[in-house]
Amino acid sequence: MKDLVHVLSQFSHEPCQEHWSDTLRVVKYLKGCPGQGILLKADCDLHLTGWCDSYWASCLVTRHFVSGCIVFLGHSPISWKTKKQVTVSPSSAEAEYRSMDVVTCELKWLKGLLQGLGVSHTRPMGLYCDSQSALYLL
Q1: How far is Cα 131 from Cα 53, in angstroms, rounded to an integer?
Q2: What domains can you pick out in the chain, each with its CATH number?
Q3: What SS3 string covers the chain?
Q4: Which UniProt keywords apply (predicted)?
Q5: What is the pTM of this model?
Q6: Residues 6-60 pLDDT 10s
């Protein structure tokens, strides 16, 4: 579903009839399944972990890359993002490195939010990336 919304959102500034029809199909689908959602497990593990990935030169027209990340609090997903970047990366390692930056900012923001809510978070946050080249840049 998120991928479909991501693609449709690229045409929101100048939608054509086909985009409007596809958007209505998404709304009808969501209306038909109100019980669907994300299950948040009741556990005491308040460890923040972030996972990131990017798809280098995934847009064949612009050669921009798509980055994505998801953050878990314990075993429950609490934040996720997918974005087509506005810059072109010369390598897949740089694209992955930039996606690590996105999830790091999200982790820092969520840690501050948890602290503001009075939730102590003493363990180091985890950051996971599948690119050895990008990890080497750290």
Answers
A1: 8
A2: 2-32 (no CATH), 48-137 (3.10.20)
A3: CHHHHHHHHCCCCCCCHHHHHHHHHHHHHHHHCCCCCCCCCCCCCCCEEEEEEEECCCCCCCCCCEEEEEEEECCEEEEEEEEECCCCCCCHHHHHHHHHHHHHHHHHHHHHHHHHCCCCCCCCCEEEECCHHHHHHC
A4: Membrane, Receptor, Transmembrane
A5: 0.67
A6: 677 777 778 788 878 888 888 888 788 777 776 667 766 788 999 988 876 666 6
